[in-house]
Amino acid sequence: MKKLSYLFVAGVLAVFATSCNKSDDPAASAAAAETNQTIVADANTTDHVATEVDAISDESLSVYSAGTLKSATVADSLSYLITGKFTITKDSTTTTKRLVINFGTTGVTCKDGKVRSGKIIITTKNFADIKLARRVIFENYKVDSLLIGGSITKTFKTDSSSVVRTCTIKDSITVTFPTRGTATHISDLYRVYHYGLIDTTRVKWTATWGSKKFTSVKGNVVTKTVDKATPLIYKMLCGHIVKGIEVITRNGKTITVNYGNGACDNVATATDGTKTWTIKL
Questions:
Q1: What is the pLDDT of residues 21-58, one digit of tens each?
Q2: Sequence-separated (6 or more) residues with CB below 8 Å from residue 274
């Protein structure tokens, strides 16, 4: 009888301990509650921010190099994305050169309809030498309500063509979603820049492939891979990715994101084998 009592007590304690472990780990419960749709949407947002910042940086360098900036504040009509009241200033007096894209504190509504504020800062030892690495950092930079942090490092490779340039991209971007928390995007990529045949200083579109890691606001970690055969195509005129396939792996299961056939339709399609849904870019 005593043996049975001991077994009964031990069983009760085991159940109690299990229930305590579950309730005492709210972070694990919250992470498990995140759906594939939420994670893919947030991962896409952070990924797009990183690609977009690179596009804005190249565009600003092109505009500045062309000598179109005659005053401290401009409303540049040549850009694909950035327009309205913003400033681009270049500091060449120090060893590390800086190009500062300043959208101000109140925000600027750009061509893509997004409101940007704060600064994107590009640094390098010499802007004229594309063989040198360029680094992008942020100062209170916001896209709509998203606060962007971290850095992007770009190193160009040697290309034989004047209208094509290849580089490696290594970035670690943080995106803070209001009321929800901060997500992190880390990538190791190859990106090919395709320039115009007439204006060889301006990028028309890019092709990107490689690997990425995304950590959600709840701590879920997923990996993202893009094959060279199906790279992500970003058109400057569209302001978003228009083609390519990305494979996301979460807990051993895959989610495929298809960005379309090249049209500026602002959407992608995701599927996890059970559900299929649309992502707005």
A1: 544 554 455 555 789 999 999 999 999 999 999 988 88
A2: none
Q: Are 150 and 173 in contact (CB under 8 A)?
A: yes
pTM over 0.85: no
* Nearest CA among 117, 102, 93 for reference residue 69: 102
Q: Which two tokens stand for residue 77?
A: 């009509």
- Indicate the domain borders of the chain: 34-220
Integer CA distances (angstroms), 15 to 4, 9, 10, in order? 17, 10, 9
- According to DSSP, the residues that pair with 165 across neighbouring strands are 193
First to last CA, the chain: 67
Q: How far apart are CA 251 and CA 247, in angstroms?
A: 13
Find out whether 207 and 232 touch, Cβ atoms under 8 Å: yes
244: left (phi over 0), alpha (psi -120 to 50) or beta: left
